[in-house]
Amino acid sequence: MSNKRKKILVIEDNPLNREIVEVTLKKEGYNLVLAVDGEDGLQKLEESPDLVLLDLSLPKISGWDIIKKIRKDKKYKNLPVIALTAHAMVGDREKAIKMGCNAYLPKPCLPKNIIEKVKNFI
Ligand SMILES: [Mg+2]
User: What is the pTM of this model?
Assistant: First the structure.
């Protein structure tokens, strides 16, 4: 890894899942920025993360609206986004990819899977 720690923005309203992701990725040496809803997430995009973990079902602004905004904006053209999808919502996975997410991670997130997905990108 380069001497600059890579920054990951986690937009997830579920506190437990957010904590699992945070603890797992901090241990791997990443710099974490946490957002608790869609509005908070859009604001924290300004902090120029190297990757985004995006829950699709969020209060205030949904993950669907966030990925739409990200893919419309040229400055985020190369920003990898991994969708966090609820276990039962199988149809969401294809939809997330179609809307511009680079990958998806089923919830509840397992540490091994989180690390594997993130390392595909940064
Ligand atoms: Mg949620």
Answer: 0.95
